[in-house]
Design goal:
Number of helices: 6
Number of strands: 2
Length: 220
């Protein structure tokens, strides 16, 4: 079976290198973590959950590796696998960006577990915001498939609706990312008061738009 996304040394070298670094670092973290390691923070940046040092050291690298392998394998399972060739570069960008993000989060929380004064409450939403902005800039280039993108009954039924919805969705991703990035500079976590409304808009606007766009084309 031909590979629909054609991984090459150029596309895989960075994620593989980051995975090797993370897996290697996990042994260092395991040897130096305390018995209980902070692994979850609330929206104020306060620790609200701890895990064993084995979980804290090894779970994220394993999850990151699983995510990477999933990205490699999904195109083989997709009935629309031939479409991946049309957005292969974007697919590789998504795969690499997610591995970079997961690696960064792992070392960020690892530093906190070692006792370094890491401002999780500021760095985490800022990082997620940047992730959203990057993904939003590529969203409109995703072609119809069963695993990536905004998959509603209406986007999967009509390619024009898919394309229009992903243009809107990309803008929503960027807007959400900007809210999170700018919000980290607002004192006293005040932006969390509007954050739930932003999430609702982020989730439902593309869905509603895809339905309306489909109905409009159906009438024509």
């Amino acid at each position: 079976m031909a590979n629909p996304i054609k991984p090459t040394l150029k596309t895989e070298i960075l994620p593989i290198l980051l995975l090797i670094i993370s897996i290697s670092a996990s042994f260092y973290f395991y040897a130096n973590f305390p018995e209980q390691v902070p692994t979850h923070w609330n929206y104020k940046g306060e620790i609200d959950n701890y895990s064993s040092k084995a979980f804290a050291a090894f779970f994220f690298p394993a999850l990151n590796l699983g995510l990477y392998l999933m990205f490699l394998g999904l195109p083989y399972l997709d009935p629309k696998k031939e479409r991946y060739q049309q957005f292969a570069k974007v697919y590789h960008v998504f795969k690499t960006v997610f591995v970079i993000f997961m690696t960064f989060i792992y070392f960020l929380t690892g530093a906190a577990g070692l006792g370094y004064p890491v401002s999780i409450g500021s760095i985490m939403p800022f990082s997620i915001g940047l992730l959203f902005i990057v993904l939003g800039n590529y969203m409109s280039k995703i072609k119809p498939n069963w695993f990536m993108g905004i998959r509603t009954p209406w986007t999967l039924s009509n390619e024009e609706v898919w394309n229009k919805t992903h243009r809107i969705g990309g803008k929503m991703f960027i807007a959400m990312g900007l809210i999170m990035v700018i919000g980290t500079f607002i004192p006293n976590n005040e932006y969390w008061k509007i954050f739930p409304f932003a999430i609702i808009a982020f989730v439902f606007i593309p869905i509603i738009y895809s339905y309306l766009a489909y109905r409009k084309l159906e009438k024509k």
